Amino acid sequence: MNVLFDLDGTLTDPKEGIVGSVRYAPQRMGVESPKESLDSVTPLLQHSITPLPHPGRRARPSRGSIRVNISASMKILVLGGTGFLGRAFVEIADSRGHELTLFNRGHRNPDLFPDVEKIHGDRGVDLGRLDGRTWDAVFDTCGYFPRVVAMSAEKLKDAVRSYLFVSSISVFRNFNVPNQDEDGEVATIEGPIIEEVQPETYGALKALCEQAVQRVHGERAIIVRPGLIVGPHDYSDRFTYWPVRMGRGGEVLVPDVKDQPVQIIDVRDLARWSLELLEKEIAGVFNATGPAPPYCLQEVLTACAGNTSAELVWVNGEFLKKHEVQPWMDLPLALEYDGSANGLCQIDVTRAITAGLSFRPLAETIRDTREWALAREHGHQWRAGLSEEREKALLAEYAELNDHRKATV
């Protein structure tokens, strides 16, 4: 019996494709070619050769490509799984044939994934419904307080091989420092820990959560620190605002910090890569944002305005501060107007890229985010960005101020 087991296609002409290579390689080796079907492919490999549509989008025959999953099906416990990142992770993991269990309170998007096992419970109160079960890995998307994360880490100590905790770039102590890698100093909390998500303590709480997982799972722990996660189903609007606002056209107020660095991560890229870390059992701490080197703000906003009638009006930081226009929430992606927080978007992601993290084109993220946002229910209450009324008033005052200055010169 002749057996060919080619994991990466190095023995075959890659232009022939997965199925074509099964016929092509024997010809090159001078042995009898298999019949013209997939019957000659081993059952495991045949099961793995499946067309996987892009998460959240219908498969397009013209782009039809075959993706190969050579890993065996895994049993994965997802803590959360119906929000933003968790949703994207479940979509891609399910499409790859993994056996999923979602543990959450059942409050958010409860009708998603009807064919996936769901266990309802409050992770901060009682994890008893997980007793007696084992999984290959856990994907923890919704841990914010060290006490709560320690509960799940302890409960699953002997029930999983790998524990992936989704942390945040916000763990770093000082964002004046550019190019921080995973060994950068993290924030701490002095005094009692209050279980409430606040901007002042968010990063330090996430750092303590990381430590809780590492204490229990040691070298099996996977800590992923995303930057700003963007893309379809992001209800925070911290990126979504710009593609939608540019799409409306007209004069658009933008902060005049054109050279400010910008790092983001498309939720689908983050979900895919996180799954691959679990599939390959790659442990460690990873900064997960990008690209490297970063975009600049002008580049991102100009891309958002592409193929629209938007006219960017660059407004200086002095005017914005005077009128209490807050960076980040009023004007998403903007950090401090004086550049003092630029280190937040100058993170070293070398380790993650080496481990396989990649980034789709910015234009694709912008397009897909805009399409998703415009399909939301009418009357969506924006969580970030300027209201139309406020933006219009600020632009009028800024134009009047500039006209006055020109008249006095």
Q: pLDDT under 50 segments (min length 5)?
A: 8-29, 33-70
CATH topology of the largest domain: Rossmann fold
Please count the beta strands (DSSP E, at least 2 residues each). Answer: 14
Question: Shape from CA axes?
Answer: globular
Biggest beta sheet attributes:
7 strands, parallel
Give the topology string: H per helix, E per strand: HHEEEHEEEHEHEEHEEHEEHEHHHH
* Tally of individual domains: 2
Mean pLDDT: 86
Strand order of the largest sheet: 5-4-3-6-7-8-12
**Strand fraction band?**
15-25%
Describe the fold and architecture.
Strand 3, helix 3 (85-95) and strand 4 (99-104) form a beta-alpha-beta unit. The longest helix is centred in the C-terminal third of the chain and has 21 residues, at 388-408. The protein has 2 domains: 1-54 and 64-70, no CATH class; 75-232 and 263-294 and 343-381, Rossmann fold (3-Layer(aba) Sandwich), CATH 3.40.50. It is built from 12 helices and 14 strands. The strands form 4 sheets. A 7-stranded parallel β-sheet has the order 5-4-3-6-7-8-12, with helices on both faces. The protein has a 3-stranded mixed β-sheet with strand order 9-11-13. Strands 1-2 form a two-stranded antiparallel sheet. By secondary structure, the chain is an alpha/beta fold. The chain has helices at 17-29, 43-48, 85-95, 146-155, 202-217, 241-248, 267-280, 297-305, 317-322, 350-354, 362-374, 388-408, and strands at residues 49-50, 67-68, 75-79, 99-104, 117-120, 137-140, 162-166, 221-226, 228-230, 250-255, 261-266, 284-288, 290-296, 310-315. It is globular and about 80 Å long. The chain is 32% helix and 16% strand. The model is unreliable at 8-29 and 33-70 (pLDDT under 50).
